[in-house]
Amino acid sequence: MPTTDTLNKSTTLCVSLAARPSNIGTRFHNHLYDELGLDFVYKAFAPADIGAAVAGIRGLGIRGAGVSMPYKADVIPLVDELDASATAIQSVNTIVNTAGHLTGYNTDYIAVRSVLAGHEVPTDLDFLLLGSGGMAKAIVAALRDAGFGSGTIVAPQSVDAGRALADQYGYRFAAELGDLAAPLLINATPIGMTGGPAENDLSFDRDLVEQAQVVFDVVAFPSKTPLISLATDLGKPTISGAEIIALQAAEQFVLYTGVRPSDDQLRRAAEFSRA
């Protein structure tokens, strides 16, 4: 990463766009720029106007942008082209600017497939997934493609979107959790996110966590959300949003720079991003 002595007009800028940005992506990318000697710098933003922000990417020649909640669907009509990874689930988490042509990608899907395989989560587990936004779409697509045959999507705040998502992939839908339970619990909402209105809340009640075999929370900041903390205390295997954000950020890094870091470099960057 350039220092104040080397930052110059040729330095390539990449950004992230989120309602409540964290430092995880910023630290991850800038650490790798520094380690690999790349003339890039990465900065997080909380845009007041997502349309103006995407126009700024094009107009200012910003190389790429990570896109987080709640903008993953909002940016679709603002880019020029969708990669197959984004088209399939109609959700964008990465924008790449090539000479003013903006292409939308989704590296969340790749990350979720990788983490499910890495944790060896049995595909015969029934799941409960809470949410219907961009990350929920990526997870549901990854679950289906990984061979998970049975599950329920719960979307109290977005009934139509939740039902459409369930129908698209052949899973069940419920407007409320009610008395539902499953061995695999997945939170794909902002519940538990630092700075949010529900940062201290549990996305699933304690009794559901006690019955679960695996607990997966996509919230990355903090890495130990109320849900992950409870599951850990109860001795349940967990998958955290911090793992997902590191894996998807690695794919973003390659799209922005054309350079694929080594596994050791990625591990060090992920550790640094969460320190």
Give an overview in words.
With 275 residues, the chain is an alpha/beta fold. It folds into 2 domains: 12-106 and 243-274, Rossmann fold (3-Layer(aba) Sandwich), CATH 3.40.50; 120-236, Rossmann fold, CATH 3.40.50. 39% of the residues lie in helices and 18% in strands. It has helices at residues 24-36, 50-60, 84-87, 107-118, 134-146, 159-169, 206-211, 226-233, 241-257, 263-274; strands at residues 12-17, 40-45, 64-67, 81-82, 94-98, 101-105, 127-130, 151-154, 172-174, 184-187, 214-217, 238-239. The strands form 2 sheets. The chain has a 6-stranded mixed beta sheet with strand order 2-1-3-5-6-4, with helices on both faces. Strands 9-8-7-10-11-12 form a 6-stranded parallel beta sheet, sandwiched between helices. The chain is globular.
Q: What is the number of beta strands?
A: 12
Main β-sheet description: 6 strands, mixed
Order of helices and strands: EHEHEEHEEHEHEHEEHEHEHH
Q: Please tally the helical runs, counting DSSP H or I stretches of 4 or more residues.
A: 10
Strand order of the largest sheet: 2-1-3-5-6-4
Secondary structure class reads: alpha/beta
The CATH class assignment of the largest domain is Alpha Beta
Tell me the domain tally: 2
CATH topology call of the largest domain: Rossmann fold
Mean of all residue-level pLDDT scores: 94
Uncertain runs: none
CATH architecture of the largest domain: 3-Layer(aba) Sandwich
Shape: globular
The fourth-level CATH homologous superfamily of the largest domain is Leucine Dehydrogenase, chain A, domain 1
Q: Could you tell me how far the N terminus lies from the C terminus, measured between alpha carbons in angstroms?
A: 18 Å
Q: What is the C-alpha radius of gyration, as a whole number of Å?
A: 18 Å
Which strand-content bin applies to the residues?
A: 15-25%
